[in-house]
Write a structure and sequence with these properties.
By secondary structure, the chain is of the alpha+beta class. It is built from 15 helices and 55 strands.
């Protein structure tokens, strides 16, 4: 009996286990993600204070932040840093514990006073009958005790003080110090600072700003209009850019600022060998110039060269206009040279930017000429983090005095009222905050760019802001059809008490229609991608497409489609076009705007195949596309073309390291450095954004007159798709790109083949570019170098004169900022290889799709016949652009 029960229990357990196992195996949908199972305990903060004596009396405040058991961060308070600045200024002026009453310099500078040294009571009272007086006293003077008694006790016992006493409009200005030497020194500083205030207007600015806006860079980029808005928040009225490609910005930016009549000086510049150039229209190539070439450019173009302080003893320094002051430690050397200087603010990010203050004669507006004149005349100071000032003693010490006094320099720079403006959706929000301790009255005025409108009447608005009051004003906006695909600006002024405070808001809206600028295809049905952005209030956008013969202008195809898309959203549409062989212009129109693209259709006799093949045996297939002329291999790491082999010569025309591993492979940080698979990739500064990501793929056409494969990836939200096509028996390989939802921190991307024509790279390789005049370059065995090129046609040619092999590359030139040539060299660590890059740099179009295409066309023999064959394909574009970048 017991045995039977045990058997039954065992069978029941087996059944229950089987049921349970089945439930777990089949019920995976019942598993849930529990986000709050282990909640973070957050960050704990503890405030710390020291108030006492070290080698001087000081007060320091800081906060410890701790989290996750081991994380600890210490941050000083702004108040204690301000107190430290005050103490250091007194130390630098040899006036320890110096206290200046707020408003002292403002009142003193605008009055005529009689100066009295250690006066008696009667002498001071007699002087006050005729006007205001300055009493210079040491603490042992009988009158000092009477006047100091008016101060709070804490200020009475400071070592050096400057304050004023008032009675019915009459003023006594008092300098009270513990020694005659100190009072004489303080009087000299006060009078010198007052003279600067009377004679000059102060204009703060940022010099040596690197925007990285038009550069391929792994550092933070800054939109030029965001930069201007930030500068205005700092109460700057000018800035000088000097970063990579920043010389392209000032012309278009000035044109944009003129739309809203914003008084702001945007000054052109560029870093060059040994220093920085300012004030030119065109600059020497940033990657390939010498100091002598930069100096020649400055002298011939009316610009200014500021060199490194470390080069001040070299013979070339006699030609410098000034020097770059890298920090306060260079003050002594600048003084010894008695030379003008500029600073280098660098990137405007989390780090505190170094600024400059130029002193212009009263009423002189800041312009490129007036700012440069002041700098060259040594009427400028540098202001570093925490209020550290450097520059000529007259202006440096005046600014130090004004920093202690506070009121005068704040009023000069207009910091009493903070004005910020931002466009959110279709609303302009203006935020005003009264930072002063009195009521401020003024008018708010809005000035609109040519593509922006206010949907209701909005004239000047009179306001009275109480002390500390913050107020937000909103304006409903609308945009004209021309607003898409450009920056749209709104300027805001707060005008009151004789001063205008400016703010700038802007929004970049996507173009209503984005379409492929350049495509090659075969006769028949062609898939033509467009992206529609809806700036209307309706839920659909009517799109009309007209395809015309590019030679005759005759319409060969028309179609229309209502695209369903919500307001201020995008939709992707693939249009089916049926075209015969020929050259065409496609024009898409929607919401009053038109966009154009070029389509070249060619019959492609011959057979091409595409297949999967795991060439390196790593379990991830490569895609091989092959015809009688070319064998192309797509590596899914980075979705790049890794081989483009000319079969008649069995020569891969692209540099590749794959399947070998780079030197840093398998080491911490290895993939954060150059990871040279090679081939045709996209470049945003090494390492490439998606260079080590395995792309997904789909073979769209595996055989026939063309083979086509799509590869795509989502790289932290940035969506990149590429379509590679090899045609018939032709050597042309087309790469079509579609970039969507690209992170806003990326603005420029390069299409980047690592080229190696023949078995090696060297001076036997010749490269040709169609600028205004044909340019020829060659790699050099002694060095690596880069060069910016501005072609008038969308092609470049390479020719190995020893191997007699040519490579033509093509791209849509109107959609290209410029072409960057890079000749690499083994000395360029960590990229120790010879190869050449011909990179078209393109500006990404945020909020919509950026379409682009790139072509490889290899041939044995000279490059001229190869170019002729390439042009016959219909994808060699031309441009008449004057500027590579425009905000419109």
């Amino acid at each position: 009996m017991k045995k039977t029960i045990r058997v039954h229990r065992l069978l029941a357990g087996i059944v229950m286990l089987a049921v349970a196992s089945g439930a777990y195996a089949q019920g995976l949908e019942d598993y849930r993600f529990e986000a709050g199972r282990y909640a973070s305990r957050g960050i704990e903060s503890r405030q710390q204070v020291f108030d006492g004596y070290t080698n001087h009396w000081e007060r320091r405040e800081w906060t410890w932040h701790s989290a996750r058991g081991l994380f600890l961060l210490s941050q000083p308070s702004a108040e204690s840093e301000l107190l430290a600045m005050e103490a250091e200024i007194g130390n630098q002026l040899l006036l320890d514990e110096l206290w200046i009453q707020p408003g002292f310099m403002k009142e003193f500078a605008q009055r005529s006073v009689s100066v009295l040294n250690s006066p008696s009571r009667n002498e001071l009272e007699n002087a006050l009958r005729d006007g205001d007086a300055l009493a210079c006293l040491v603490d042992r003077d009988p009158l000092a005790k009477v006047l100091l008694a008016q101060l709070p006790e804490a200020s009475q016992f400071r070592r050096n003080r400057a304050f004023f006493l008032c009675n019915e409009g009459r003023m006594i200005f008092v300098l009270a110090c513990q020694s005659k030497e100190e009072v004489d020194r303080l009087r000299s500083h006060v009078q010198a600072a007052a003279e600067v205030v009377r004679d000059f207007d102060f204009h703060r600015g940022l010099a040596g700003v690197n925007t990285s806006y038009l550069a391929i860079s792994s550092v933070q980029r800054t939109d030029p209009f965001t930069l201007v808005a930030t500068a205005l928040q700092l109460r700057c009225s000018w800035l000088m850019v000097s970063g990579y490609n920043d010389w392209m910005l000032p012309g278009p930016v000035r044109a944009a600022l003129s739309e809203v009549d914003l008084p702001f000086a945007f000054i052109s510049g560029q870093s060059v060998s040994g220093g920085v150039l300012y004030g030119l229209e065109r600059y020497p190539d940033i990657q390939d110039n010498t100091i002598d070439e930069a100096l020649d450019a400055a002298e011939q173009g009316g610009g200014f060269y500021f060199g490194s302080l470390s080069k001040s003893e070299e013979e070339q320094a006699a030609r410098y206009d000034g020097y770059i002051l890298g920090g306060p430690s260079g003050q002594e050397q600048i003084d010894a040279l008695n030379a003008p200087f500029v600073v280098h603010a660098g990137e405007i990010g989390a780090r505190t930017p170094t600024s400059m203050v130029v002193f212009l004669e009263k009423g002189t507006p800041p312009t490129q000429d007036s700012v440069m004149d002041a700098i060259l005349a040594r009427r400028a100071v540098a202001v570093y983090e925490k209020g550290v000032v450097a520059g000529p003693a007259r202006f440096r010490d005046a600014v130090r005095m004004l920093l202690l006094e506070g009121v005068c320099v704040e009023e000069q720079l207009g910091t009493g009222v903070a004005v910020d403006a931002v466009i959110e959706g279709r609303t302009l929000k203006v935020r005003l905050r009264n930072r002063s301790e009195r009521v401020v009255r003024g008018d708010v005025r809005v000035r609109l760019g040519e593509t922006v409108e206010i949907r209701r009447k909005a004239g000047p608005r009179r306001l009275a802001l109480a002390p500390g009051e913050c107020r937000v004003i909103t304006y409903p906006l609308s945009f004209t059809p021309a607003a898409g695909g450009r920056a749209n600006l709104v300027a805001v002024d707060f005008c009151g008490e004789g001063r205008a405070i400016h703010a700038l808001a802007h929004v970049e809206l996507p173009a209503v229609i984005e379409m492929h600028p350049l495509m090659l295809d075969v006769p028949g049905e062609i898939v033509y991608p467009i992206t529609v952005w809806n700036m209307s209030k309706r839920n659909e956008v009517p799109v009309a497409l007209v395809v015309s013969d590019s030679s005759s202008g005759e319409e060969v195809l028309t179609m229309s489609q209502a695209v369903r898309v919500r307001p201020w959203q995008t939709a992707h549409v693939d249009l089916a076009l049926n075209l015969e062989a020929g050259d065409y212009i496609a024009e898409a129109t929607a919401l009053g705007t038109t966009t154009k693209g070029t389509i070249a259709v060619r019959s492609q006799p011959g057979e091409v195949v595409a297949r999967e093949e795991d060439i390196d045996g790593d379990g991830i297939p490569e895609i091989v596309m092959e015809n009688d002329a070319v064998r192309a291999v797509v590596l899914l790491y980075g979705g790049r073309v890794i081989e483009y082999t000319l079969k008649c010569r069995d020569e891969n025309l692209l540099f590749k390291l794959w399947p070998e591993k780079p030197p840093m492979h398998g080491k911490p940080g290895g993939t954060r450095q150059f990871y040279p698979y090679g081939g045709l990739e996209e470049f945003v500064g090494y390492p490439y954004i998606g260079g080590n990501i395995v792309y997904q793929y789909k073979v769209l056409s595996s055989s026939g007159s063309y083979a086509r494969v799509k590869v795509w990836a989502n790289v932290h939200g940035s969506k990149i798709a590429k379509f590679y096509t090899l045609y018939g028996a032709s050597p042309v390989l087309e790469a079509r790109y579609a970039f969507d939802d690209m992170t806003p921190t990326l603005n420029v991307i390069g299409i980047n083949p690592l080229i190696q024509i023949g078995p090696s790279t060297g001076p036997e390789d010749r490269y040709f570019f169609p600028e205004e005049h044909q340019v020829e370059t060659r790699p050099e065995l002694e060095r690596y170098y880069g060069r910016a090129l501005f072609p008038k046609e969308g092609w470049a040619a390479g020719y190995d004169s020893e191997m007699d092999i040519s490579l033509i590359v093509g791209y849509p030139v109107d959609d290209t900022l410029y072409v960057h040539l890079w000749n690499n060299h083994p000395n360029n660590k960590p990229t120790p290889y010879f190869y050449t890059e011909i990179q078209p740099w393109i500006e990404l179009k945020h909020g919509t799709t950026t379409h682009y295409s790139y072509y490889l066309f290899g041939r044995d023999g000279p490059w001229e016949p190869a170019l002729a064959e390439f042009k016959a394909l219909g994808v060699a574009t031309k441009t008449d652009k004057l500027w590579p970048w425009d905000y419109r």
